[in-house]
Amino acid sequence: MDAFYASVEQRDAPELRGRPLAVGHGEARGVVAAASYEARAFGVKSAMPSVSAKRRCPELIFVPPRFEVYRAVSQQIHAIFARYTDLIQPLSLDEAYLDVTADARGLGTAWATAKAIRAAIAEETGLTASAGISYNKFLAKLASDQKKPNGQFAVTPEMGAEWVAGLPVERFHGVGPVTAAKMRRLGIERGVDLAAKSLAFLAEHFGSSADWYHGIARGIDHRPVESNRVRKSSGSETTFARDLIDPLEIEAAVAQQAEEVWNWCVSRGRYGRTVTVKAKYADFRQVTRSRSTPAPVRDRDQLLATARALIGTLYPLTLGLRLVGVTVSGFPAEDAVPSLFD
């Protein structure tokens, strides 16, 4: 979906259409959960502190998130998906992989199927979606960003390896900022550079990820669409626009992430025993702190307090944080249901 949370808010409040909008809380300790395309034009991004967002765009309008509405719209969208295939792997409320090989509606091509799905979404929800079409998940994921918003792009088998060759490594799913920086130090800036490295070289420098990088540099990804995948954890993390050292700013971000994780737990009726906070320092050093309880955490305030207590173990900070994240895991076996909307 295109700017999903923000687009829902603009759909439901016509006076907000065409205006820079952020979903989140605009107070000093707030964080942007999502930004409309009008706001993105000013450099406003999700996970950005509200103060920074307002500085970039003084006319920015903040609206509080309505997760129950976003979940309801997401159910509508996934119901549309189900008309075209049973092989659906949800990634989030607004994104999923679909295997349409069987061509259940007899439309002839994946391109035609994507157009039909996008048209149905627009007609039934009033929202726009973008699609990436390809012969594997890695390329489809990359292609889905190519023509945003409200477009679609296909990477065919004939063009796959050549298309990947020209992309910067930062675009690759599974290559984060730290890995991308390491690749650049090794002279790997684009897919063509990655493809030129031997598997032995990649294993020496990237360990168990070598096979993955060796494959995607050639447009190869054999992972199937897993419609019954069971999630073992739920997490949210934020990479800040600038390194943070003020505990109030850091805890505001942790609170926002804990809120997102809690909403996920409530929406699926799944509650875990272990809360983990991850922090990455300005020098890219990463630490985690975890706490487990005898029974699953079923109280929002308990989750928030635990996350704040865990991040508090890092104080006082002598180096700023560039990223923090909150994760809940340790779901009871009987809660391990595969559906996104159980």
From TrEMBL:
Enzyme Commission (EC) number:
2.7.7.7
Keyword list, A-Z: Cytoplasm, DNA damage, DNA repair, DNA replication, DNA-binding, DNA-directed DNA polymerase, Magnesium, Metal-binding, Mutator protein, Nucleotidyltransferase, Transferase
In terms of PANTHER family, this protein maps to: DNA POLYMERASE KAPPA (PTHR11076:SF33), DNA REPAIR POLYMERASE UMUC / TRANSFERASE FAMILY MEMBER (PTHR11076)
From what organism does this protein derive? Sphingomonas spermidinifaciens
Keyword Nucleotide-binding belongs to the record: no
Q: Which residues form the UmuC domain?
A: 1-176
Tell me how the cofactor is bound. Binds 2 magnesium ions per subunit.
Q: What is this protein called?
A: DNA polymerase IV
Could you describe the subunit structure of this protein? Monomer.
Q: Where in the cell is it found?
A: Cytoplasm
Q: Which InterPro entries match?
A: DNA/RNA_pol_sf, DNA_pol_Y-fam_lit_finger_sf, DNA_pol_Y-fam_little_finger, DNA_polymerase-Y, DNApol_IV, Rev_trsase/Diguanyl_cyclase, UmuC
Q: Where is this site: Substrate discrimination?
A: 5
